[in-house]
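User: Hi! I'm a student and our assignment asks us to look at how structure tokens line up with a sequence. Could you show me two examples?

Assistant: Happy to help. In each example below, the sequence comes first and the structure tokens follow. Example one:
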Amino acid sequence: MKHYIMTEAEIKFAELIWDNEPIGSGELVKLCGRKFNWKKSTTYTVLKKLCLQKIFKNEESVITSLINREEYYQHKSEKFIHDNYGDSLPEFLAAFMSKKRLSQKQVEEIKDMIDRYEEEM
């Protein structure tokens, strides 16, 4: 599975595209200038990098996503668990819960997720 890697600045840039897509490249340059104080060249450099990672595409000066926001954050979460907990969700949850007490509502939500998962199997 491909893991997408973006810096914090690139994530903010991606969020801007996701919030406004499809967006023309000229409009994207203007938005980045206002929001990030970026020059045109900076916008195109970052866009090119993210297009090479196949996160976005630029066809006929219109930018659209190849992966959406939810897919990106899912990949990011999976990579974190893989890198830090050897792909073990139970180890991640154990580490998380060792420092933080779950509310009853959170416990119920997790139980419901597990129940739905088991029903789908």
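Example two works the same way, sequence first and then tokens:
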Amino acid sequence: MNPTTIFSALAEPVRLEALRLIWDGQEHCVCELMKKLGASQSRMSRHMTALKSVGLVTDRRDAQWVRYRRAPDLPATVVALVDAALAIPVEQERQAA
């Protein structure tokens, strides 16, 4: 896993908020993420593809739904990196942007 691509994936606010939801270890369908994050289906799918391509999430097709969850067996250093990014309060994230 390349740190630059991970940082790039975490730098986008919608992807970071999606990870915040997914990091609970449960599966989340695109429709749920769309509703909670106020994103269109195509936009949400693009963001989830970006998170999947860097190895942070995995997906599973369930009939017409695609469900995402935190990738299993992530290196401890990657988990620590994401945990640190998610520990920043949302208000601080908005002020920095």
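Here is something you could point out in your write-up. The chain has a mean pLDDT of 90.
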